[in-house]
Amino acid sequence: MQLNEIISAFAVKETIVRHENFGGGHINSTFKVTAESGRKYILQRINQNVFSDPVALMGNVRAVSEYIRCHSDGERRSLEFVPTAQGGVCYQDEEGVYWRLYRYVDGLCLDVPECDEDFYQSAVAFGQFLEWLKGFPVETLYEPIPNFHNTPYRYRQLKEAIEKNGAGRCESARREIEIALKLEEAAGVLQAMRESGVLPLRVTHNDTKLNNVLLDPHTRQYICVLDLDTVMPGLSAYDFGDAIRFGAATAAEDEQDASKMRLDLHLFEVFARGFIQAAPSLTKEEIQALPLGAFTMTLEVGIRFLADYLNGDVYFKTAYPEHNLVRTRTQLTLANDMIVKRKEMERIIAEIVAELQ
Ligand code: GN1
Ligand code: MG
């Protein structure tokens, strides 16, 4: 790969002197590149197995970023992408691969909050994201991955993977399959609430991991939300839930010892407070659905990891053969702990609501 050739397709006149892998995303390949001028950029190769129409996807990114710029607190609050020399949103190289370029902003992306305030900041970031976009015409968004958080659909995909047993791994995941299938009914409740219209459709981020928020290394305030690839119509419970499953957990998503995995109720409370404060337009029904969102998003990604393990690791990047199974175990353990702690989550949410009134 000739990075200099790729960069020359964009509207910057730069010679790249250094590049390194950057970030821990499971889907795209990301590089931090440094130009002779000293300026830095983030160059990303868009994974076309996952994102079939990178141009339409970048149309979402552009529309949402511009809307945030007009409706936010005056800070930029989204990364600035560099257009191609022809004014396009991304560049397709001779091999058909799509690339995009962002101006680099110095900041921290954490996998684990170093203090409560870090996690609180990410809650404000994702809460404000929903709030600022509440007037955005949701129906104009392109859906990069249809049924992304449709958990019953994810179950259908899991069952197909079990049926096919493409990688011959069903036997080694027998326990996990059994646990996952037992939880199927509970997993469908949120989707039913979406379909019945109890919960409003919003512009949601859909991948609200703590490491998708950029924090200022000095002030520790959030700078902006990252990774807008999965922005599409969705439920606030998705964004709340995915953030809780990743950031309010006592162990990493791929901790080998799943028994270390629990929901940390203190971190749950820290995040819930920031999120609810930052998004005053949340309805009573949406607020009540937040604990369900945490459980559903955790279980959902658990079965997605499991299906990918059974399919032979064709979707998520993996570092070793059991990686997706290890991830499955942590997520199923966490989802079960959320069932146990459901009442406590609900009590915490009710207390926050009362305190904010
Ligand atoms: C993927 O790309 P990344 O690492 O931010 C995935 C999310 C999962 C997450 C699990 C497009 O996010 O849905 O929750 O991994 N993104 C896509 O860590 O599938
Ligand atoms: Mg990401």
Write the layout of secondary structure elements.
Blueprint: H1 3-7, E1 16-21, E2 29-35, E3 40-45, H2 54-71, E4 81-82, E5 91-92, E6 98-103, H3 116-132, H4 151-164, H5 174-182, H6 184-187, H7 189-196, E7 202-204, E8 213-215, E9 222-225, E10 232-234, H8 236-247, H9 265-278, H10 284-288, H11 290-311, H12 323-340, H13 342-356
Antiparallel strand pairs: 1-2, 2-3, 3-6, 4-6, 5-6, 7-10, 8-9
Helix pairs in contact: 3-8, 3-9, 4-11, 8-9, 8-11, 9-13, 11-12
Task: Explain the overall architecture.
The chain has 357 residues and is an alpha+beta fold. The protein folds into two domains: 3-103, Phosphorylase Kinase, domain 1, CATH 3.30.200.20; 116-356, Alpha-Beta Complex (Aminoglycoside 3'-phosphotransferase, Chain: A, domain 2). It has helices spanning 3-7, 54-71, 116-132, 151-164, 174-182, 184-187, 189-196, 236-247, 265-278, 284-288, 290-311, 323-340, 342-356; strands spanning 16-21, 29-35, 40-45, 81-82, 91-92, 98-103, 202-204, 213-215, 222-225, 232-234. The strands form three sheets. Strands 1, 2, 3, 4, 5 and 6 form a six-stranded antiparallel beta sheet that branches. α3 packs parallel to α9 (265-278) and α11 (290-311) runs antiparallel to α12. It starts with a helix and ends with a helix. Residues 25-27, 50, 207, 209, 212, 227, 229-230, 253, 301 line the site of 2-acetamido-2-deoxy-1-O-phosphono-alpha-D-glucopyranose.
